[in-house]
Amino acid sequence: MDHLTAYQKVQLARHPHRPYFLDYVEHLCPDFTEVHGDRKFADDPAIVAGFGMLRGQPVCMIGHQKGRDTKQRQYRNFGMPKPEGYRKALRVMKIAEKFTRPILTFIDTPGAYPGIDAEERGQAEAIACNLREMSQLRVPIIVTITGEGGSGGALAIGVGDRVNMLQYSIYSVIAPESCSAILWRDQQHAAEAAEALKLTPEDLKQLHLIDEIIPEPEGGAQNDPAAIAKCLASVLERQLRELQHASPNDLVSCRHKKFRAMGAFGE
Amino acid sequence: MTWFKREKKPIEAPDQRRIITEGLWIKCNGCKDPLWKKDLEGNLQVCPKCNYHYKISAYDRINLLMDAGWTEHDSSLYSTDPLDFNAAKPYKESLTSLPEKVGVREAAVTVEGKMDGVPVVLSAMEYNFIGGSMGSVVGEKITRAIERSLDNGSALVVVSSSGGARMQEGALSLMQMAKVSSALARLDQARVPYISVLTDPTTGGVTASFAMLGDLNIAEPGALIGFAGPRVIEQTIRQKLPAGFQRSEFLLQHGMLDAIVHRKDLKAFITSSLKFFIA
């Protein structure tokens, strides 16, 4: 499978049958309780947040949710959150912090919603605020990119102590189609753009931006959702164990150092 | 016998006496009136008739805001093209040609000094350097500016002018948003003032990280400020955008800005706020 081109991996990450956050929840955490709303404006169905038990351990889980059929896609806004989605995520993360529960986030979004209402309510401020606040949360945070990691809209729930990517997920600063539109003034060069952007898990691992790549079943996660969920659960369980004895101060300072070290430049 | 005779010498065109007007006048982007360039230069690159604020360079911005005698920091940082980004126009080409053309080594310049006597660390962004985009170097420079503020307690001022994260450095650019925001959280806890100045344009990953995280977020009049660019929004929702959408005045109205400040009042506004915070 690893003879796939970068753009083929992009297409796999967007596969319409790929397991979404609620599919993982069903496998990982059957007693999941969803909570709603940002307490300021609305509830955003593009982000799902709640609590449950992961193999006997209470955790907070937050993820982007895309829809399966047209109706659901519309309802979930194709997994593109508005400011209230990010604010809900932060609100729930603060509850988790208050009651010292670890936070697991699951990223799968084309990006934050680019619309008039989202801009009016401060999309940029909502994302920025999450980045700042997540860096300071005094509980373990484990981030997994399960499908599309679309730029700031993904990172806004992506600041964690461990960052994992599924084998056929992607994480990019811009969609290859948009990159092509800017550089070539058309969308025909998306494949080349995907190659150039270095958005596959292997690329990100090499750039020291993520920690682990979680292998997928033959042909991709959509072929065996139960198997990928089981594999994911084992990884999360192990990582939670690794982090459980760290003091809150150490967690925050290690997380800061982790992101502080990101970047490549000369001096 | 002819009435007219050809002159031996051709009529001389008054070459030397011609007054060259080309390039001295421009059409104002705001009011569309003709504008004498010298008037613009004498007025901080602001149209005297309609107050349209033209972009200014990072060093002009520094000289506008800082007292004389500032020192520059971290000027040796440069981008290494870590992804070997070769699509359409090679990134390396821009990196080699731009420093000389634009007069800065990267899209952010950090200086330290006084602003009306108040000790300040200032980072100003340079839009002409790849759209002021934030790659590893800009992220690192802003982070170091924050850390410098944290170390010596000087207030932090960042003047943004940027299209967002730098595509040519892929996810490395994206992570700069988290890096800078995490550093700002520490500055916040140390209670060192941070004033974010948003100028035309400030969009994408820069707005969605440090530009929106100031104790005060202030903007110049008429600046384009947003997360998604207007073209992207138009293509997504397939509607024309309302007039004034994503301009400073729109953001102020929607509660995203503390104030809109004319360029000539910017220094006074910042210093009086800082004096209020730290006096």
Explain what this protein looks like in three dimensions.
The complex is a heterodimer of chains A (about 270) and B (about 280). Chain A has about 270 residues and is of the alpha/beta class. Helix content of chain A is about 45%, strand content about 20%. Chain A is built from 12 helices and 9 strands. In chain A, helix 7 links the parallel strand 5 (about 140-150) and strand 6 (about 160-165). The relative contact order of chain A is 0.15. Chain B is an alpha/beta fold. Chain B folds into 2 domains: about 20-50, no CATH class; about 55-279, 2-enoyl-CoA Hydratase, Chain A, domain 1. A 7-stranded mixed β-sheet of chain B has the order 3-5-6-7-8-9-10, with helices on both faces. The longest helix of chain B has 20 residues, at about 170-190. Chain B is globular. At the A-B interface, helix 5, helix 6, helix 7, helix 8 and helix 9 of A face strand 4, helix 4, helix 5, helix 6 and helix 7 of B.
What is the CATH superfamily label of the largest domain in chain B? 2-enoyl-CoA Hydratase, Chain A, domain 1
Widest sheet, order of strands of chain B: 3-5-6-7-8-9-10
Report, as a whole number of angstroms, the end-to-end distance of chain B: 97 Å
Q: Tell me about the biggest sheet of chain A? A: 8 strands, mixed
| Share of β-strand residues of chain B | 15-25%
Q: What is the third-level CATH name, the topology of the largest domain in chain B?
A: 2-enoyl-CoA Hydratase, Chain A, domain 1
Helix content of chain A: 40-55%
Residue stretches of chain B low in confidence (pLDDT < 50, at least 5 long) are none
Along the chain, the helix and strand elements of chain B come as EEHHEEHEEHEHEHEHHEH
Report the major sheet of chain B.
7 strands, mixed
As a whole number of angstroms, the C-alpha radius of gyration of chain B is: 23 Å
Number of self-contained structural domains of chain B: 2
